[in-house]
Design brief:
Length: 60
């Protein structure tokens, strides 16, 4: 089974589009807090795509 992007957390909504849920946060601290919470809930991993964008990925 391939890896799946479950969510995107970003500070910059203009750079993001796609089929996964997108969480737009006001600052880096809130972005990291949401990513950590989703990582635990979804039993997945957080990966930094850029300084202002994180993705939650399930590897299986």
């Amino acid at each position: 089974m391939p890896s799946t992007i479950l969510a995107v957390i970003t500070l910059n909504k203009e750079k993001i589009a796609g089929g996964a849920p997108i969480f737009i946060e006001p600052d880096k601290e809130k972005m990291q807090q949401v990513a950590f919470t989703l990582e635990k809930i979804l039993d997945a991993m957080v990966h930094e795509v850029s300084e202002d964008t994180l993705i939650i990925v399930r590897h299986k």
